[in-house]
Amino acid sequence: MARAENADPNRGVDSNRGDVLVVGGGIIGLGVAWRAAQRGLDVTVLDPDPGRGANRVAAGMLAPVTELQYGEEQLLRLGIASNERWADFAAELTEATGLDTGYRACGTLAVALDADDRAELRELLAFQQRLGLASEWLGGRDCRRLEPMLAPSVRGGLLVAGDHQVDGRRLGTALVEACVRAGVALRRTRAAELTVDGDRATGVRTEDGALLTAGQTVLAAGSWSGELPGIPAEARLPVRPVKGQILRLQMSSAFGEPFLSRNLRAVVKGVHLYLVPRADGELVVGATMEEQGFDTVVTAGGVYELLRDAHELVPGITELPLRESSAGLRPGTPDNAPLLGPTALPGLVAATGHHRNGVLLTPVTADAVGGYLATGVLPAEAAPFTPARFHRTATPAPEALR
Fold first, then answer.
1. Domain span at residue 251?
2. How many CB atoms lie within 10 A of CB 234?
3. For residue 283, what are the β-bridge partners?
4. Is beta strand 136-139 parallel, antiparallel or unpaired with respect to 156-160?
5. For helices 73-97 and 362-375, angle between their N-to-C axes, nearest 10 degrees
6. Which tens digits make up the pLDDT trace of 132-147?
7. Does residue 182 contact residue 1 with C-beta atoms inside 8 Å?
8. Which domain-ending residue is among 308, 331, 354?
């Protein structure tokens, strides 16, 4: 069980100094906290509603190969490393909690609807092959043989058998339970500001006035990671919110066979779209990419665009019940890659900025940052993603917790 919350808000000071304080209880923060607690560290997570961050909106595609963009080879390698851990990570979570994460090894079919989109996919295939990635080109007829609900206009596609999926909502619930069982303390409030003593982060002051201190403070607050007061300018993280609207429909068996059987990605007239079918019949359609600050309003235009493009790809989708429309915020960075490890401020560690890959990168982030907190050593696979790449001043040498 988690240790009791022993801070007296009237006192304003928490007398129990822990090893690690994680600011942000989304799946990234919870994953880091779980791994750190498993290594014997005393860990507290600070979040008003743990497990209900951007993962509540995410589709949960585990698709490093079909997510590949030019110039993101290092991110691709990190994604592949994380994807390879997902089956074991999901199994470990289920064993620890008795909860299903919705992990499913189903593969992804990425298709195109016109000649231009087909040419773009062909270029992506050539790029993947140069990198030694496993993907297979299919003609339009073969695509429709795999997924009969596809539109007749589909011109071809890429089949990537190694892509998987997980249910982000179930994942969040399981990680909360895993943390509780590992002894992580959950403080259900927000951080008001980072506290600094000399040249070192010492913890945070909460909205209710409590002062929480720890040997290491992990900033895992998603899109809000760049907004926490008290962080010196040289250590502030370049994280911004990127809005995404998403739809959830209910698939029907009235068509005589499964509506969709695997992840489906498409380039529809230059716009990227994905459809993720769950084993329980839910179909997730997403997602818009909007630079709208911290706005999370679902708009008629966003819903229309998603349904319009999805109908181009799978005409029968307009007959399905629409169960939910929602919007969330991805934590974006200037290079679309995460921020992992020590910052320019000793005692402050980053685990944020995962943009569209938060669910995919949860296992590798949890291992890398959780391990760093215990040993002071960041693994080589995470080294290219330290915040130092955005700062002129060098990041201090890692320090192991004493």
1. 108-161+241-331
2. 11
3. 249, 277
4. antiparallel
5. 80
6. 888 899 999 999 999 9
7. no
8. 331
What confidence tens digit (pLDDT) does each residue in 209-264 have?
999 999 999 999 999 999 999 999 999 999 999 999 999 999 976 555 689 999 99
Give CA–CA dist 172/19, Å, rounded.
23
Q: How many residues does the chain have?
A: 402
| Residues 98 and 113 grouped into a single domain | no
For residues 27 and 361, give the distance between their C-alpha atoms in angstroms, rounded to a whole number.
Answer: 10
Average pLDDT, the chain: 90
Give the tens place of pLDDT for each residue, 181-203: 999 999 999 999 999 999 999 99
Q: Check if the beta carbon of residue 271 is closer than 8 Å to that of residue 212.
A: no
Question: What is the predicted pLDDT for the residue at 129?
Answer: 87
Report which residue type is found at 121. Answer: L
- Asked if 266 and 340 sit in the same domain, the reply is no
E-state strands within 24-96: 43-46, 61-62
Structure tokens at 146: 């795999």
CATH number at residue 177: 3.50.50.60
For the whole model, what pTM was predicted?
0.91
- In sequence order, what DSSP letters do the residues of 170-226 get, joined into one string? HHHHHHHHHHHHTT-EEE-S-EEEEEEETTEEEEEEETTS-EEEEEEEEE--GGGTT
User: Residue with structure tokens 């001043």?
Assistant: 393
Among 184, 208, 170, 203, CA closest to 52: 170
How many distinct structural domains can be found in the chain?
2
Q: What is the pLDDT of residues 369-389, one digit of tens each?
A: 999 999 999 999 999 999 999
> How many H helices and E strands in the chain?
7, 18
- Scored b (16 or more CB within 10 A) or e, 185-217 reads bbbebbbbebbbeeeebbbbbbeeebbbbbbbb
